[in-house]
Design brief:
This protein is of the alpha+beta class. It is about 15% helix and about 25% strand. The chain has 5 helices and 15 strands. A hairpin with a 4-residue loop joins strand 13 and strand 14. Helix 1 packs antiparallel against helix 2. The termini are far apart. The N terminus is likely disordered.
């Protein structure tokens, strides 16, 4: 038998492959993952033949350590990471929850369009507060000044695209020869009428040369419930950016309004501002003046959020910062009195066109095909 003179720990380069200890036969000791048979264990002084597989024999490689348990521990780490991220999501809100979803679906990050409308919404920390809603949405609410042969009037509008599409009431701009729009920043633009729909008291105008404007997010008025908190933003009496709050006090009110500014009094009462209030009819009675012969009726949201002359065309907003209605009419009892020339304030009876009515009418307004 030839003595192996290789120093301890050195690796042979010409060893017979049959001596490799990882493929021992049954009954030999030392094969990785192979159980040794009784009686074949090595004892000091025992002789062995070259090529025998023994894990401790000189010239043989030591067997690999048992890595399987450690491997199982490593396999659990991604799940442990997901659990930790999920716990963090429960603490800080939706942003991390999105991350968890991406990890679980392979990080694709794909999202469906779902017909979503881009806009400014309230941050997680500000949801449910009037101040949070006002801060988020006020930049998308504008003041509209309309000049006509009957004089000047003031209304409000909601920016829905970055290049200056603005939704308002038809009665705000009906008969206007010139339209000036003032943003919350104080910057003023000239606007053109894109389309009107007198039957729904809606109109779409567009600013000249505008870009990068803050836009409002259009919500879902079918989800609105009586008692929901709301915020109204507009320019009553020219007071730009006025914020009021209240609740939804009723749904599906049949409100009748004049189609244009040709009411029987002939004083431009079809628009709000400058002491003139928009006349409307409810329950067979007329309020704030004569609605005239040309009228239209729509289902409205009723709110006790204060609406005053100039709020027409402005936004009624839920506590997530989404537009749920376009403010369109208000009840002011003293204005109905004969000889009264003053504009009465809100008594908690305001009405708004549901935003779903607007969304269904947008294509018609953009095409200029309104009735």
């Amino acid at each position: 038998m030839t003595e192996n003179l290789r120093p301890s720990g050195a690796h042979p380069t010409d060893q017979d492959p049959t001596a490799y200890p990882y493929a021992s036969s049954p009954g030999t000791a030392g094969a990785a993952g192979t159980e040794s048979s009784p009686g074949t264990a090595y004892s000091p002084g025992a002789s062995y033949s070259p090529g025998a597989a023994y894990d401790g024999a000189p010239g043989g490689y030591p067997p690999p350590p048992p890595y399987a348990p450690a491997g199982r521990r490593r396999a659990k780490r991604p799940m442990a990471l997901l659990a930790a991220v999920a716990l963090a999501a429960g603490v800080v809100g939706g942003g991390v929850a999105t991350l968890v979803g991406q990890l679980n679906d392979g990080g694709s990050g794909a999202t469906g369009s779902g017909g979503a409308v881009n806009g400014t919404t309230v941050s997680q920390s500000s949801k449910g507060t009037v101040s949070g809603v006002a801060e988020a949405v006020s930049p998308a609410i504008v003041e509209i000044g309309a000049a006509s042969s009957a004089g000047n009037s003031t209304g409000s509008g909601v920016v829905i695209t970055e290049d200056g599409e603005i939704v308002t009431n038809n009665h705000v701009i009906s008969g206007a020869q010139q339209i000036q729009v003032t943003l919350s920043t104080g910057r003023t633009y000239t606007a053109d009428v894109v389309g009107t729909d007198p039957d729904k008291d809606l109109a779409l105008i567009k600013l000249r040369g505008a870009s990068g404007l803050k836009t409002a997010a259009l919500g879902d008025s079918s989800q609105v419930k009586v008692g929901d908190e709301v915020v109204a933003i507009g320019s009553p009496e020219g007071l730009t950016g006025t914020v009021t709050s209240g609740i939804i006090s009723a749904l599906d009110r049949d409100v009748t309004v004049a189609k244009d500014d040709s009411g029987s009094s002939g004083q431009g009462q079809g628009r709000q501002g400058g002491g003139q209030q928009w006349p409307f009819e409810f329950g067979g009675q007329q309020f704030n003046g004569d609605t005239g012969e040309e009228t239209t009726t729509y289902k409205a949201l009723q709110t006790d959020a204060s609406l005053n002359p100039g709020n027409s065309g402005g936004a009624l907003i839920n506590m997530n910062g989404e537009i749920i209605g376009i403010n369109s009419a208000m009840y002011a009892p003293s204005s109905a009195a004969a000889g009264s020339g003053s504009a009465a304030g809100s008594v908690g009876l305001g009405f708004a066109i549901p935003v779903n009515t607007l969304k269904a009418d947008l294509d018609t307004l953009r095409a200029g095909d309104g009735s």
